[in-house]
Amino acid sequence: MADRKRMLQSxxxxxxxRFDLTDIKAFVKEKGVPLHTQEVWYYLxxxxxxxxxxxxxxxxxxxxxxxxxxxEAYESVQFIVTKVPFGWLIRNIHSWSANLLIAVAFAHFFxxxxxxxxxxxxxxTWVSGMLLLFLMLGFGFSGYLLPWNELSFFATKVGTGIAxxxxxxxHFMLRLLRGGDxxxxxxxxxxxxxxxxxxPAITTALVGLHLLFxxxxxxxxxxxxxxxxxxxxxxRTMPFFPNYILRDVLAWYVSLAxxxxxxxxxxxxxxxxxxxxxxxxxxxRPEWYFLAMFHTLKLLPSHIWIFEGERVGVMAFGLAxxxxxxxxxxDRKASRGERSPAFTIAAVLxxxxxxxxxxxxxxxx
Amino acid sequence: MGKPLPLAALILxxxxxxxxxxxxxxxxxATCHASLPDQRLSRPANTFSGPxxxxxxxxxCVDCHGGNPAAADKARSHDxxxxxxxxxxxxxxxxxxxIATCARCHSDAELMRTYAPKQRVDQSxxxxxxxxxxxxxxxxxxxxxxxxCHGAHGIRLVSDAKSPVFPTNVAATCARCHxxxxxxxxxxxxxxxxxxxxxxADYQKSIxxxxxxxxxxxxxxxxxxxxxxxxxxxxxVGAIANVCGTCHAVFAQKFEGSVHQQIFDKGCVECHxxxxxxxxxxxxxxxxxxxxxxxxxxxxxxxxxxxxxxxRGGIEHLKASVDRTGALLARIKNAxxxxxxxxxxxxxxxxxxxxxxxxxxxxxxxxxxxxxxxxEKIVADVEKNGQRGLGELSYRRKGLxxxxxxxxxxxxxxxxxxxxxxxxxxx
Amino acid sequence: xxxxxxxxxxxxPKAVDAEFDRRTFLDALLAVGFVSTAxxxxxxxxxxxxxPATGEPETASAVAxxxxxxxxxxxxxxxxxxxxGIVVRTPDGELRAFSAVCxxxxxxxxxxxxxxxxxxxxxxxxxDLGGNVVSGPPPRGLEPFKVNxxxxxxxxxxxxSRA
Lengths: 365, 427, 163
Fold this sequence. Notes:
The complex is a heterotrimer of chains A (365), B (427) and C (163).
Chain A: H1 2-19, H2 22-30, E1 32-34, H3 43-63, H4 73-82, H5 87-115, H6 123-145, H7 150-163, H8 170-178, H9 185-217, H10 223-230, E2 237-239, H11 240-265, H12 288-299, E3 303-304, E4 307-308, H13 309-325, H14 327-330, H15 332-335, H16 341-363
Antiparallel strand pairs in A: 1-2, 3-4
Helix pairs in contact in A: 3-5, 3-11, 4-5, 5-6, 5-11, 5-16, 6-7, 6-9, 7-8, 12-13, 12-16
Chain B: H1 4-14, H2 28-34, H3 39-49, H4 53-56, H5 61-65, H6 74-77, H7 96-106, H8 109-115, H9 123-129, H10 131-137, H11 146-150, H12 167-178, H13 181-184, H14 199-205, H15 207-213, H16 223-227, H17 240-245, H18 249-256, H19 260-263, H20 268-272, H21 303-335, H22 340-359, H23 365-424
Helix pairs in contact in B: 1-7, 2-3, 21-22, 21-23, 22-23
Chain C: H1 12-49, E1 61-66, E2 74-80, E3 83-89, E4 95-99, E5 110-112, E6 117-119, E7 126-127, E8 133-135, E9 144-150, E10 157-162
Antiparallel strand pairs in C: 1-10, 2-3, 3-4, 4-9, 5-6, 6-7, 7-8, 9-10
C-alpha cells in the first residue's frame, strides 16, 4: 500500500517537473460540489458525457465494418450483426445508447431550465449546452438513416421534407441535406460524413467549451440556496475527487448494465432493405425524440390565415429553438437572483407539451 | 374442298394480271378525298396518310381499291371498267371482298417473302375454318373480317404497341363486338342459349390479364392464345387441357393421369373457369366451404371428399410448419445469429409446397403426401438448427449474467467505498 | 487524514487495524470488480476486431465451385448469401452464373445436360444459357452474375459476384 503511494508520488513528481501540475493539483484538492436537496440533478451532465463516450467507442468499432453506400449499407449492418463476433452487442449498444443519450440530454436540459442554472454568470454554458442538444438531435437524425432500411429511408424522406417547409431557404436546405432532390445514396454519403466527422468535430469543441465553463465556474446552486448562502449560511460541499466522481462512476456503471441488458433482450431490428420505388409504408413516423414535433405538424390545418400550416409550424419551432438559446439573456429577473415564475411556467409547459405530444404521437395510428 | 372454294374463286377472280406491286406516285385519291366535306370519304385518306405499314412500304390506295391515281376527275379516277388502270376500281370492299382484297397479297408466299419472309401466308385459309369465316360464308356481314381487327387504313404491325392486335390490346379489340349485347343478341350457342357477352369483363378479373397488363409478361394469354388467331373457335371438349397445357405443361401432365380427366367435360375449365381464371389458392382444395372440390364431392362416404380433405390438410400443415420455422429464423437472425444456411433449406421446403400443389392435380393423395413428407423433414431439420440458435442466445444471456455480476460488484464496491470516504470527509 | 473512528480506549490500535483491513478488503473488492468489468468489455471488443471467417458481406460474392468440378455441359447449384445460385459450364467450356431463383414462384432451378438448358422442376419453366426464358410460366429471365476464376488448374476457385 505504501509502495503504491510512493510510486504514484514519484510519477506525479516526474510529470510536475515537465508540465507544472500546480494548477491541476490545486483544482483536485479544492473543487467541491454543493450539497442540497436538488443535488441529484448534477449527475445528469456527467451521465450525458458518459453515454456520448459510449457512442464514440461503439461508433468507431462499427466504422470498421460499415459500408456507406446504398448498395452495401444494409448488407454491412446485417454482416456486423450476424457474422462479426459480438457485432450484435456493439450495434445494439450503439442504438440503445443513442436513445438513452438523447433522453438523458433532455433531462439534463430540463433540470437546468427549471433550476435556472443558466442565470448570470453561466449564460455561455447554457448557450453551448443548447447547441449541444441540437447537435445530439442531429446525430440521431443522421445516424438513423445509416442502416438504410425501409423505416429509416422513409423517416428521412419525411424529415428532410419538413426542412423544405422553411420559407425562402427551405428548398435549398432540403437539397443540401438530401444531396439532391430525393433521398438517394447521395443522401447516405452526406449523412455518413455528417455523422462520423462533421458533427463529432463540432461536438467535441463545444463539449470542451461547456466543460471548461463548468469547471471554471463551479456548480450552480438553486436560487433559494444561493440567497441563503449570500445571507451568511455556510454552503455544505463534498470534494469533487474522489467523492463526487465516484458517485458519477457508479451511475455510469449502472447505465452500462442497463445498456447491456437492453442490447440482449430488446435487440434492434434489421428491417427490410430500403427500396426508393416502394410506396411509403402506412403509419411512418420518426423516432420518439422527434415525435412531438412531427405529430404537431400533422395536426396543423393546411392553411393558417394566408400561410401554409406546415410552414407556420416549422417557423414556430425555429422561433422556439432561438428563444431557448437566448433564455439567459431574456430572463432578467433570474439574472438578478430574483424569482422568475414566468420562465418556470414556460419550462413546465414545454415539458408537459413534449411529453403529452410524444405519447399522443406514439398512440396515433 | 367444299367450303373454301368460293372464297378461293373470289380471290382468283379479283386477281388482276399485273399483280400487286407498289404503284408509286402520283396519288390523286388522297389529294381529292382529303378535302371532301363528308367524313366517311375524307377520314380513310387522312388516316392512311398517318402511320400505316402499307403506305410506309410504298403501297397506295389503288393497290387495294383499284382505279387510276393519275386522273384528276372523279369519273376517270373511279375507273370501274379498268381500261385506264392497272386494276379496276372496286370501291369499298365489304364482306368476303375484304378477305379477298387482303389475301390477294397476304396469301401470296412469293410476294410476302420480299417484304416479311417470316410472316405466315395462310391467314385466309385459317379464317375460313373459324366461326367468323363460316358465318361470313353463310352471308352474315356482321362478323369480324380482317379490317375489323387490323383496321383498313392506319394499319400498324402486330408488334407496334398501338396496334389493336398488340397482345395487351387484343382483348379490348375482340370485346368491341363480343361485349356488345345489342350486337351479339341475334347469336346463339349450339344449345340455343344466347351468346354470352361477359367474357371480357370476366377476363379482366383474371390473373392472365394482370400478368399481361401489369406484370409486363407479354407471353401471358389473351383471347387469341386460346381461341386461335384467325381460325377463332372456342376450344372443343378434349382440346381444353391441351390448350392450357401449352403453358401449364406439368399440370396438364398430372391431370392427364388422373381420374378426373375422363370425367370432366371441360378439363381445366371445370375448376379454374375459362375467362375469369383467378390466381389459385389453397382454399380451392377440400370438401367443405368454398372449396371447388365440394361442388361434386361431399359427405363421409365420398372417397374423393376424403382425399381432397387429406391433401388440403397436409398442405396447410406444411405451410404452417414453414411459417412457424421461418418466424423462428427471423427472430434469431434479428438477434444476430447466422442463419443463411437454414434460410436456404427453408426455401427448399417452400419448393416442396409448390410441388405438392402441382402434384395434387393428379388427384392421388399418397403422391402428394410423399412430397409433403419430404418438406416436413426439411422443416424439422431447420427447426432443430433454429433451436440451437436459441441455445446460442441463452449462452449470450449467461455472458450477460457474468457481466452484470461484475458490474454489480463494482457498484456494490463503489457504494461501500463512498460510505467510507464520505465519513472521512465528514459528509 | 484524521481517522474519525478513533475511540479513546486502549483498543485504538485494533480499531485502526480493523479499519485498515476493511479498507484493504474494499479496495481489493473494487479492484476485482474493475478488472472483471474491464475484461467483460475487452473480450467482446477484441473478438469483434478479429476479422471473421467470411471476410466480407457474403451477399457480394461467393465461391461457387472448384474449376475441376465443372465439366463442359454441366451445372452446379451453390449458396449465395441466403439464396441459391447456379454456375454453368457451357458445352463450349465458357463459365456462366445466374441466380437460381426461378422468377415464377421462387423454386430452385437446375441444369439439364440433355437439353443444355436451365430448368425448373416445379412448373416446367425453361431458361437458355443466357438466362432468358425459353418456355413455361416464368415472366422474366434469371438474374445474371459475374464469374471470375481465382487461381490456376483444377483447384482454381470459381468466384461468383453480383453483376
